[in-house]
C-alpha cells in the first residue's frame, strides 16, 4: 500500500502522525521504539523548543549522530515551525563554528558526538546563539540538559507551515569552494518523497525494514532514508558506525528489505569473506547514491550475492532525487527521471543535445530548492529565471531514455581540443584486476594544453604496472583519453558522499 498524501500546505513533521502507535518505528542497538513512543518524545521536544520564545523560521542546529536523538531533534525542530540545520558532529570545531555563524542559529541541540565540538566553540563567533542543549551528564558551560527538559515538558502542538516555508538548511559538500547553505522547503522535501514513491518499480512499503548507515546531516540519509521510511510507516534501523561484517549479520538477522548508501558501502559489502546470497535474501531494494558506483561492484553484488544494486542520482539542491534506476536498467545507468521532474541535457549554448552526445544536466520540478542562504549571486549562477537548476554534471541519454552520468562539467579535461571526462577514464581503470580505486585529473601539457593523469590504489597483493594500465585504457578509449602518467597512492581522497576530491589530487 502506498500512503496517500494530501497536497494542502503542511508541516513535514506531520508525516508520522497517522501510523499505528504499536508499530516499530526505530531500532537502535537494543532499543525498539514504537511510533507511539516516538511521537510522544517528539511532542515533548517540541514543548521544550516552544518554551524558548523562538519565532517560526528561527534556526536550530542539530549536532547528533545517526541515532534516535537526531530523529527526535529533527522532527521536534521542524514541528515547532523552526528551521533545522543538521551539521556533521565529527567536523572540526572551526568548520562547525563557521556554519553556525553563516546560518544564524538561535539554538543548538548536541548529542554525545557533538558535545566535544561545542566545548571548543568560540561562542562570541556565533552572536545569534542563545541556547545550547546537551545530553544528561554532559559537562558544558551555559548548556541545558535536554533529557531533563524533555521529562518535564508538557508538549506542544505542531505549528502549521506552508509549502514555501524553509524547513532545513543543508550545507553542500563544498567540493567547488566553501560550503553553501541550501534552503529546502517543506514542499521541496515532501514533493521529493511523493515523486519517488510514485515511480515505476519497487518502492518503500509499511512492512519494510530499512537500514540507515548514511549520516542524517546528509540529504540522502535525511530525506531519502529517514523521512521516506517514516512517511510510509516502515521500520528504520539506525547504525552509527558502519562495519561491513556486522552489516551483513544485521541484514540477515533483521531481515532488512531496503538499503541505500554510497558506493564505498556497497564495495565493502561485496568484499566481505564468506558471504552467501542467502544472507541477502530479504533485500528487495538496493540503491547506490551520492557518487558514481563502479560497474564492477554492481556485477559482484549480482553474480556473487544474488541482488542488483540500482544507481540513483540527485543533489542536495533537489532534495535529493532526480533519477533512480530500477528493473532491467543497464548497468552504469542512473535510470530515468522520477515522476514530476523534468530533465534536459544542453550544450554550451543552452541547446538540447542529440541522443548519445554529452550535455549538462538541467533539472526542474517541485523538489528543486529555492536558493542558497544569503547568497543571491550563487543562487543565480545555478538556478535560472525559468526554474531550471544547472547542475554542472554532464550526462548522455540513450535511445530508451536511460541517463548515464559522464562527469562534472568543471572537471572536464581538454586534450588538444578534445573533451575528456575523468569518470570515463576512472571507470575503465577500475575494470583492471590490479586496481582497487582510481582518480583522474587534468594536468598542464606544453603541446596538448592538458594531459590525463591517473592516481590508482593497488588491489591487495597486486603489483601495478604503469605501462600496462595505459595500454589497458587504450583498448577501451581513444588514445587522447588515456593517461600519460599513472601514480600509485595509498588512497583516493573522497568527500562524505564518496565523491572524488579532484582538487586534492591536483
At CATH level 3, the topology of the largest domain is Rossmann fold
Question: Kindly state the mean pLDDT as a whole number?
Answer: 91
- Assigned CATH superfamily of the largest domain: ANL, N-terminal domain
User: Cα-atom Rg, whole angstroms?
Assistant: 23 Å
Return the CATH class of the largest domain. Answer: Alpha Beta
> Can you summarize the main beta sheet?
9 strands, mixed
| Overall 3D form | globular
How many structurally independent domains? 3
Helix content: 25-40%
Low-confidence stretches: 1-6
User: What is the first-to-last residue Cα distance?
Assistant: 50 Å
Beta-strand content: 15-25%
Overall CATH architecture of the largest domain: 3-Layer(aba) Sandwich
Number of H- or I-type helical stretches: 14
Coarse structural class: alpha/beta
Strand arrangement in the largest pleated sheet:
2-1-11-10-12-13-14-15-16
Work out the number of β strands.
26
Identify the notable features of this structure and list them briefly.
Rossmann fold, alpha/beta, globular, 25% strand, GMP Synthetase, Chain A, domain 3, 506 residues, 26 strands, 27% helix, 14 helices, nine-stranded mixed sheet
Task: Write a structural description.
There is one protein chain. With 506 residues, the chain is an alpha/beta fold. It has 3 domains: 35-161, Rossmann fold (3-Layer(aba) Sandwich); 187-408, ANL, N-terminal domain (Rossmann fold), CATH 3.40.50; 412-505, GMP Synthetase, Chain A, domain 3, CATH 3.30.300. Helices cover 27% and strands 25% of the residues. The chain has 14 helices and 26 strands. It has helices spanning 35-50, 68-79, 93-103, 112-119, 146-152, 186-197, 219-232, 244-254, 263-270, 295-305, 376-382, 422-429, 466-474, 502-505; strands spanning 24-28, 31-34, 59-63, 83-86, 107-110, 131-134, 144-145, 166-171, 181-185, 209-212, 235-238, 258-261, 285-288, 310-314, 321-324, 336-337, 342-346, 359-364, 371-372, 389-397, 403-408, 413-415, 418-420, 435-445, 449-458, 485-488. The strands form 6 sheets. Strands 2-1-11-10-12-13-14-15-16 form a 9-stranded mixed β-sheet, with helices on both faces. A 5-stranded parallel β-sheet has the order 4-3-5-6-7. It has a 4-stranded antiparallel β-sheet with strand order 17-18-20-21.
